[in-house]
């Protein structure tokens, strides 16, 4: 029974690679949990390379932030390695809105500015855990939990985050709930949020 438990634990997250690398081949028609491997003899240095994290993201949008991802879509060599990263730029008072990463924990480092960050524990407690971070500070967001950041400084802010998956995924709460395609019925969301259906429809129109 104990051995069986450890087997389940072993497959809870991305498996360890069984070879030096498995550079993703996005042209392959093979369907696997991840991406098929390119022929190792065709692998080049550029398969493990990305340039661009020095470039500030455009934060002129409703939330005032921009995420620049560096995952397996940008670096094919990350396939099967279980890591990725992002740069997040924040305008003054900009937010990275409440969201989750279904496949990864996140460790965030403030490079510039001040951030108010937090996450919410799972039901039934839904405890909000928050902290104000300064340049050089680090904060961890556990896998799957709803979390956010807000720039609370007097200028722009920048953070770099690492994630424990080659493809962590992101579910932005507001987009998922109010911007689904097709839309979730207004009476369902009205009951869930305990508001009038017309308010739900107004919010849905924003997405």
Automatic annotation (TrEMBL):
Mn(2+) binds at residues 99, 101, 106, 147. Residues 51-201 form the Cupin type-1 domain. Pfam families: Cupin_1. One of its GO terms (molecular function) is manganese ion binding. Signal peptide: none annotated. Keywords: Apoplast, Disulfide bond, Manganese, Metal-binding, Secreted. The keyword Nucleotide-binding does not apply. Oxalate binds at residues 96, 101, 106. It is found in: Secreted, Extracellular space, Apoplast. SMART domains: Cupin_1 (SM00835). One of its GO terms (cellular component) is apoplast. The keyword Transferase does not apply. Disulfide bonds join 22-37. CDD domains: cupin_OxOx. InterPro entries: Cupin_1 (IPR006045), Germin (IPR001929), Germin_Mn-BS (IPR019780), RmlC-like_jellyroll (IPR014710), RmlC_Cupin_sf (IPR011051). Belongs to the germin family. PANTHER family: GERMIN-LIKE PROTEIN SUBFAMILY 3 MEMBER 3 (PTHR31238). This is Germin-like protein.
């Amino acid at each position: 029974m104990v051995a069986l438990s450890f087997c389940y634990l072993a497959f809870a997250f991305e498996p360890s690679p069984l070879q030096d690398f498995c550079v993703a081949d996005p042209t392959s028609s093979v369907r696997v949990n991840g991406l098929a491997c390119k022929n190792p003899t065709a692998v080049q240095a550029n398969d493990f390379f990305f340039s661009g994290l020095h470039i500030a993201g455009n934060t002129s949008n409703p939330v005032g932030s921009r995420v620049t991802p560096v995952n397996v879509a940008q670096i094919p060599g990350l396939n099967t390695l279980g890591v990725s990263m992002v740069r997040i730029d924040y305008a003054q008072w900009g937010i990275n809105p409440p969201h989750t990463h279904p496949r990864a924990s996140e460790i965030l480092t403030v490079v510039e500015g001040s951030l108010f960050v937090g996450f919410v524990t799972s039901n039934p407690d839904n405890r909000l855990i928050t902290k104000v971070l300064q340049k050089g500070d680090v904060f961890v967001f556990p896998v799957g939990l709803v979390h956010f950041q807000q720039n609370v400084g007097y200028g722009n802010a920048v953070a770099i985050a690492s994630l424990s998956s080659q493809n962590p995924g992101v579910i932005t709460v507001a987009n998922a709930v109010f911007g689904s395609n097709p839309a979730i019925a207004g009476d369902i969301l009205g009951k869930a949020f305990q508001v009038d259906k017309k308010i739900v429809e107004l919010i849905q129109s924003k997405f």
